[in-house]
Amino acid sequence: MNSVIKLLSVQIVPLWETIKFVATKADEIDKKDLKPYLNELLHSLLSDNAQCFVRMDEKRTLLALMITRILINKMSGEKYLYIQCLYSFQLVDNSIWEKDMEFIRQFAEKEKCSYISFDSRHRRVQELGESVGFQEVNRNFAIRL
């Protein structure tokens, strides 16, 4: 049976190399921005301003990793859970993701969040989100200068 657990801040350092790999892959960080990005992420995880969840199998093999943050919507003042990145080390059935999202939903409710949000340009992540009940709210476009 796969299980999702929230890592304690003291568990971050032993998994830091894996967390760095996942975060830089999922968030697609430019090499020039890597150092400040990773410094901020590590500080946020160690100070509990960001949360790290992992899915493991019965042999305690790491199967997936998710980093979240509890934020405040500047327009509405609502507290919400933002999924910063999500990474799976193997393809899994959507039913597994549904169970993971139920765990995350319960965490968000416990933290008194009004909603859960994520951003992604990856079609598979978007489809996964839609399959567990997320709806597209807006799209973000940018042009580099």
Provide an overview of this structure:
It is a single chain. The protein has four helices and five strands; from the N terminus they run βααβββαβα. The protein is α+β, with helices and mostly antiparallel strands. It has a single domain, classed as Aminopeptidase (3-Layer(aba) Sandwich), CATH 3.40.630. It has helices at residues 16-27, 34-46, 94-110, 123-131, and strands at 3-6, 50-56, 62-72, 79-88, 115-118. A five-stranded mixed beta sheet has the order 1-2-3-4-5, sandwiched between helices. The longest helix has 17 residues, at 94-110. The relative contact order is 0.14. The model has no long low-confidence stretch (mean pLDDT 90).
Topology:
Elements: E1 3-6, H1 16-27, H2 34-46, E2 50-56, E3 62-72, E4 79-88, H3 94-110, E5 115-118, H4 123-131
Parallel strand pairs: 4-5
Antiparallel strand pairs: 1-2, 2-3, 3-4
Based on the model shown, name its key terms.
single chain; 145 residues; alpha+beta; Aminopeptidase; 5-stranded mixed β-sheet; 5 strands
Short note summarizing the structure:
By secondary structure, the protein is of the alpha+beta class. The protein has a single domain (about 5-130), classed as Gcn5-related N-acetyltransferase (GNAT) (Aminopeptidase, 3-Layer(aba) Sandwich).
